[in-house]
Amino acid sequence: MNLMTSTEAKATAIGLILLVLLARLVWVKVRARRSKSWPKTWAAIHSAEMEVMDLDDKNEIELPCFTFSYVAAGENYSGRFSLFTDGEEEGERLARKMAGREIEIQYDPKRPSTWYIPDKKIEGYEVEQKMSPHLLEKLHPSD
Fold first, then answer.
1. pLDDT digits (tens, 9 = 90+) for 1-57
2. Predicted local confidence at residue 15, as pLDDT
3. Dihedral, 135, 22, 62, 118 alpha carbons, nearest 10
4. How far apart are CA 123 and CA 102, in angstroms?
5. Residue 103: φ, ψ to 5°
6. Is 97 in a helix, a strand, or coil?
């Protein structure tokens, strides 16, 4: 009977983890590319608040988070996104400014609850959470 050594087992486990991560990255990229042909609609921003989110396992960041709603296929849907600002004061100012505004989004015609924000920046700030959470797990507010 040929058993793996501890080193071989670790190497195999690391290889499998990397393979899974690569497959997930490819899947996310394919979904992002497909979303470019999705229909566009306007979404109304209803609220904006500062929220603390995990940046990684050890660091947190406070960002302005926005809730919005849109109509697709005759139904109402909603979502959340945040903007990466340079501090709490700037984030609070931006949150006040954005409340009540509209942004353009795209949605999956086969599953209208799935949305995408095509803009890389809004008001000069990087959009964090450019796809609905089940499509892209990145720094994003919780739903």
1. 567 788 887 878 788 787 777 777 766 666 666 677 899 999 999 999 998 877 777
2. 80
3. -50
4. 12
5. -130, 155
6. helix
Strands (E), the chain: 40-54, 60-72, 75-84, 102-108, 111-116, 121-122, 125-128
| Closest by Cα among 69, 81, 58 to 139 | 81
Question: What digits encode the pLDDT tens for the residues 104-140?
Answer: 999 999 999 989 898 889 999 999 865 555 444 443 4
At 97, the amino acid letter reads: K
Q: Which residues of 98-123 are buried (b: 16+ CB within 10 A; e: fewer)?
A: beeeebebbbbeeebebbbbeeeebe
Amino acid at 110: K
Q: Which residues 6+ apart lie within 8 Å of 86 measured at CB?
A: none
Cβ proximity of 28 and 40 under 8 Å:
no
Among residues 110, 111, 128, the alpha carbon closest in space to that of 119 is found at 128
